[in-house]
Amino acid sequence: MRRFFATLAGRTVLVTAATAVVSVIITALVALPIAVRSANNAARSELMEKSALAVELLSDDKRTARERIVARLRADDIDVFLIRRGVVDQSGLPERVVTQVAAGNVVDTRGVVRGEAALIAGRPLRGVDSGVVLIRPAVSGTASRVLGGVWVALLAGLLGGVGAGALLAHFTARPLRQAALAAGRLSAGDRSVRLAVRPPAEAAELAAALNQLGAALQVSEGRERDFLLSVSHELRTPLATIRGYAEALADGVIEADGAPRAGATMLAEADRLERLISDLLVLSRLEAADLPVDVVRVDLVDLVGSAGEAWAPRCGADGPRLSVELPATAVEVDTDPGRIRQVLDGLCENALRVIPAGAPLVLAVRQGEHGGIVEIRDGGPGFTDEDLAVAFERGALQQRYRHVRKTGSGLGLALAARLVGRLGGGIEAGHAPEGGAMFTVTLPYSART
Predict the structure, then answer these.
(1) What CA–CA distances, in Å, run from 269 to 124, 232, 386, 405, 406?
(2) Which of 202, 212, 203 is nearest to 177 (CA)?
């Protein structure tokens, strides 16, 4: 029982039952006094009518008729007091009533007669200082009589309230139970679970949110699988090259004069493998907010100029045309120069992979409204508008173009976006005026950092 009342359904039943009980009590407290007052008012009206009739009848001088009328009234639990010349025939009647009736006034009041509450109705008779007063006990015990008459109805209302609460609890808790079951299936790995979106509005919103969560998890896990496949391919390629040359050297297939070339190839592939593993490590630390940064005052003009000098040898006669656009004045921001250089190198590496020989590659710096801006533009194949929406998602472009053009591991752009975000800046992908892709990196001033 305690477990039942710990559930939403149990608490709904409990609240509904408590509401029904309170409603019944309030109804009784309000209705019973009204019933008592109504009964007394009805008795007073009846008493006044009988007093008028008694006056007419008692005006008859025949003693026998008067005695018969008095006996008839007393049989109805109505006591009769006769006033002759200001004197009442019985004791117990309040003096004020005697005085008023003897003065010719009609009396309709309540009072105490012989120690009991009573309804008093008096009218004058023909004659001097004469009248008749009828006394009836005030209505008592009406509350208990009314309650005794309606307790079945009150009990039925209470049971109806409890039943309505149970029904309401069932319909209220059912969507929550279904949502809990769906969440359990999602946590167990079933991404195909979906809920019917039905009223009430709150349950429909919950079902829609769980459906969206399931769809998002399905898409996210699909991308994760594709990303792992692409990364495993990227890891397997240099490993296969290193393994092949190592077996050739071990078997003596490669002569002594070919050993330096084999060693250089193995070293290059090992460097490629190391960069990939390093990117994976940095990306995981960025997602865990565990990557340290060293923020200092940096002149972006000097930083990008140095990057241009470093990349110039890679852009020879058979490569792209590298150009560096720098302003005449310094553009200073507070940032980590090593991480920004890592971003620039990664973006340049991506560009060199796809742009043809003779196409432009531009590194530019300019002063922005809210910070320094670095642009990397190229004349390569560029992006479509659909590509821009997923450019910084891990492996998204690699999965899309791996059978179309040369691609990397799919980590470079995701790593660049997270590095810039870690430094408090922003990065955007767009269309370059040179015809290819453009990446705009915005770095904050010290006040914003």
Answers:
(1) 129, 15, 33, 20, 17
(2) 203
375 secondary structure, DSSP code: E
Residue in the structure block whose two tokens are 């008795």:
43
Per DSSP, 201 falls in state H
* Mean pLDDT for the chain overall: 77
Q: How far apart are CA 107 and CA 44, in angstroms?
A: 11
pLDDT tens for residues 212-223? 888 888 777 776
Residue 166 belongs to what H/E stretch? helix 142-187
Q: What is the pTM of this model?
A: 0.48
DSSP 8-state assignment for residue 14? H
- Does the N-terminal peptide bond of residue 200 adopt cis geometry, omega within 30 degrees of 0? yes
The mean pLDDT of 395-402, rounded to a whole number, is 69
- DSSP run (H or E) holding 136: strand 131-137
pLDDT in tens, 136-182: 887 665 555 555 555 666 677 667 767 776 777 666 777 777 887 88
Phi, psi of 324 (to 5 degrees): -120, 125
Which residues partner with 442 through β-bridges? 373, 426
Question: Residue 138 CA to chain centroid, in angstroms?
Answer: 61
Residue 304: burial class (beta carbons within 10 Å; 0-12, 13-18, 19+): buried
Distances (CA, A) of 188 to 183, 191, 192, 210, 226: 9, 9, 11, 14, 21
